[in-house]
Specification:
alpha/beta; binds protoporphyrin IX containing FE; about 725 residues; single chain; Cytochrome p450; 3 domains; globular; Rossmann fold; six-stranded parallel sheet; binds flavin mononucleotide; about 40% helix
């Protein structure tokens, strides 16, 4: 039976339009969501009827790309005034979207992230350098400088040198004003927009500043004659692999502008909110300090590999994006008339908005949803997540292309800041949010100072892992290495396997999965390395994906499958799983278990571990003269309790409820670095109470309530890992 979609009462003509506040729009929608527990409501925004959904099951339906697409309606229709047919604002069916997407995708592969890393590091070092000379920083401004300089240098080979200037670059000021105007136009009637002549002139002038900046970036590259493999290089040089089309000059300008906008507003907001959450959650801050002290001890210069070993910091970013997605909503529209949740009738081309905060805190999908809890992102917890309850990077084909770029950059910047600085918020900021196309903290200032040597935790040098190398001598055994790969990662690994197999005496063929589909093996070994794209097969594995292999056809074949994936996708490893099942159903017998790598984690380590297993199994099976190299087969690394997840503090700390905090030092500067400055005769009074039904006694005896702490001692409630003394 169909049901009416609830609609809050509005006014004649404007409907609910005037109810949406200019400031605090995100709070307005959060309140509305709370008033609609069924997870759906409709608003009439001055004649534009929009259905809002936040129930994860309804969101799953609207994220089905066969039923819904991304429309370019306000506010994106206004952003299109300056980003044109760039990826972000290209319309459904606009051919140039597919061309640009295919041309640019290789620039976002894992290989490319490694290639951008030196530039990311250079800009992160500029940030660290800027903070070294200051005691107070404006977080959002500096994160904006970092993100803008990073995308400009890595993507276009240009330096904005934002940290050398007191004011934000004119491009940024123009972009901020243009985005604000685009949002104003979204909220006001077109008639009113037409009357605001001065605002219109300023808007046009801001767009001109942005376009001039971008034209200069393109001109400089053309003038240099450089053939770089970055975003700009690809756009200037590469042809669409499918149609052979090249991007027009105007489209290249739109794409550069799009990357400058999409590539920095969001990453800077994420980093700023992450620091906000760390200030509110000292136990998580302590875990993060412990992690950087272990992985980047002393002044270790981060490498890509070290950054990918981080575990706490990525979880901080994941949880930050849950509670504060810089992009607050994604817009969709129905392709045809349809029904949601079995009862809500949706006409064709109905605009549907998914407001992310209510989705990301929906009780159906998240327990204790408002709590900043990074343990939600432990692999075992993550496997239980509702597949459509977390969309900070959007959905499907139109999801964020820059996700890995943003997360790599943010991991590095956060790790370096924590490696070098003690960070405090002595004035206890109240989070104010500024909203344009994205949200970010407004006026968020922190105290910073270099960490002192005694504040860093020290860890024993880890024992270098001995690599296990089984030697295989398989004379003439047929071995196929088939890969499915869009961005070259799986192809690289396939080549690596093939090289080693040739050296080991196998008779090797390397081919795509589609070539394999036309020529299935009757015997020998088949090794498959493949990735997934939104759960689907890569482009060169489509034919293999649709192939039906009769049961028994591969009875004499032994096989192994390595899946390259990314746990950031709910469809993690979807396609390699299907390949494994298909081969097994056709009678092939696995040599080793299906392997997995995670581009959001220790990719190289996971690949190496699986390859070691593969070579050992091949040695046992096919090496007539096989032998395992002498030397240790396993390495043991002794980890202290404090290195083991869920990590440092939570294993040792016991919850304390702070009943009140009375600051007896008037000037918060008085709390500053007492290890350098003699304590003043003042005290901080922090009455606290322990939970009455603690399952285990506290590890350390703490004075019970009320407790008066001399101002020279630490203000933390955990027995260890106090990163700094304030
Ligand atoms: C934490 C940082 C980021 C977040 C949260 C984020 C979020 C998003 C979201 C939600 C969308 C989909 C919007 C929609 O459906 O209308 C999107 C699209 C996009 N993002 Fe990001 N983004 C981030 C960083 C980046 C970076 C660093 C780049 C570029 C280097 C980038 C480039 C893009 C582009 C080009 C699109 C349009 C993709 C298409 O439609 O083909 N983003 N992003
Ligand atoms: C647009 C896009 C979609 C992706 N979808 C998935 C996915 O559904 N599941 C997954 O595990 N990984 C997904 N990934 C991650 C890739 O599979 C991963 O980066 C892999 O290493 C790429 O390998 P390739 O270069 O061989 O194609 C996606 C990556 C991109 C850029």
């Amino acid at each position: 039976m169909s049901a009416a979609i609830p609609t809050p009462r509005g006014l004649p003509l404007v409907g609910n339009g005037l109810q949406v506040p200019v400031e605090g729009t995100h709070r307005f929608f959060a309140d509305l969501a709370a008033q609609h527990p069924d997870g759906i409501y409709r608003l009439n925004l001055a004649g534009r009827h929009v259905v809002f959904v936040h129930d994860p099951d309804l969101v799953a339906e609207v994220c089905d790309e066969s039923r819904f697409y991304k429309p370019i309606d306000p506010p994106l229709a206004h952003v299109r005034d300056f980003a044109g047919d760039g990826l972000f604002t290209a319309r459904e069916g606009e051919e140039v979207w597919g061309q640009a997407h295919r041309i640019l995708l290789p620039a976002f592969s894992q290989r490319s992230m490694k290639a951008y890393f030196p530039q990311m590091l250079e800009i992160a070092e500029n940030l660290v350098g800027a903070w070294s000379g200051r005691s107070e920083v404006d977080v959002s401004d500096d994160m904006t400088r970092l993100a803008l300089d990073t995308i400009t240098l890595a993507g276009f080979g240009q330096q904005f040198r934002s940290f050398e200037q007191a004011e934000l670059h004119p491009f940024l000021q123009a972009m901020g004003s243009a985005l604000t105007e685009a949002m104003n136009r979204t909220r006001q009637l077109p008639m009113i927009t037409g009357l605001k002549k001065r605002a219109d002139a300023a808007y046009k002038s801001d767009i001109a500043v942005m376009q001039d900046t971008v034209d200069e970036v393109i001109r400089a590259r053309r003038a240099s004659g450089e053939k770089a493999n970055d975003l700009l290089g690809l756009m200037l040089e590469a042809a669409d692999p499918l149609t052979g089309a090249r991007l027009s000059d105007e489209n290249i300008r739109n794409q550069v502008l799009t990357f400058l906008i999409a590539g920095h507003e969001t990453t800077s907001g994420t980093l700023s909110f992450a620091l906000h959450h760390l200030m509110r959650n000292p136990h998580v801050l302590a875990q993060a300090y412990a992690e950087v002290d272990r992985i980047l001890p002393g002044d270790t210069v981060p490498t890509y590999e070290l950054i990918m070993k981080l575990d706490v910091i990525p979880r901080i970013l994941d949880e930050t994006l849950r509670l504060h997605s810089p992009i607050t909503a994604i817009g969709l529209a129905s392709r045809e008339a349809t029904t949601l949740g079995g009862r809500y009738e949706i006409p064709a081309h109905q605009k549907v908005a998914v407001i992310l905060k209510p989705l990301h805190t929906h009780p159906k999908a998240w327990s204790d949803p408002e709590t900043f809890d990074i343990d939600r992102w432990l692999p075992e917890a993550k496997a239980q997540h509702h597949p459509h309850a977390y969309k900070p990077f959007g959905n499907g084909e139109r999801a964020c292309i820059g996700r890995q770029f943003a997360l790599t950059e943010a991991r590095l910047a956060l790790a370096m800041l924590l490696q070098r600085f003690a960070i405090a918020d002595p004035a206890g900021h109240r989070l104010q949010i500024k909203q344009t196309l994205t949200i970010k903290p407004d006026g968020f200032r922190l105290r910073v100072r270099p960490r002192l040597p005694h504040e860093r935790l020290s860890f024993d040098e880890p024992v270098a892992a001995a690599s296990e190398t089984a030697e295989v001598h398989a004379s003439g055994v047929r071995l196929r290495v088939a890969y499915g790969s869009n961005l070259g990662t799986s192809e690289d690994l396939a080549q690596q396997i093939a090289d080693r197999a040739r050296r080991s005496g196998f008779d090797v063929t390397v081919q795509t999965l589609d070539d394999l589909a036309a020529d299935l093996p009757a015997e020998g070994v088949l090794t498959v390395v493949t990735s997934s794209y939104n759960g689907k097969a890569p482009d060169n594995a489509q034919a293999f994906d649709s192939l039906d292999i009769p049961a028994g056809a591969l009875d004499s074949v032994r096989f192994a499958v390595l899946g390259n994936g990314n746990t950031q996708w709910a469809t993690y490893q979807a396609y390699p799983r299907r390949v494994f099942d298909k081969l097994a159903a056709a009678g092939a017998r696995p040599i080793v278990d299906r392997g997995e790598t995670d581009a959001a984690g220790d990719f190289d380590g996971m690949a190496q571990a699986w390859l070691n297993g593969l070579w050992s199994a091949l040695a046992a099976e096919f090496g007539a003269a096989s032998q395992t190299e002498t030397g240790p087969r396993y390495s043991v690394e002794v980890l202290g309790e404090d290195q083991i997840r869920p990590a440092v503090v939570s294993t040792q700390a016991h919850p304390v409820m702070i009943m009140s905090v009375e600051e007896l030092v008037g000037d918060p500067a008085g709390l500053w670095d007492f290890s350098r400055e003699a304590p003043r005769p003042a005290s901080r009074r922090s009455p606290s109470s322990f939970p009455t039904a603690s399952p285990t006694p506290p590890a350390t005896t703490w004075p019970s309530t009320p407790r008066t702490t001399p101002s020279s001692s630490t203000g933390r409630c955990t027995p260890c890992a106090s990163p700094a003394t304030w």
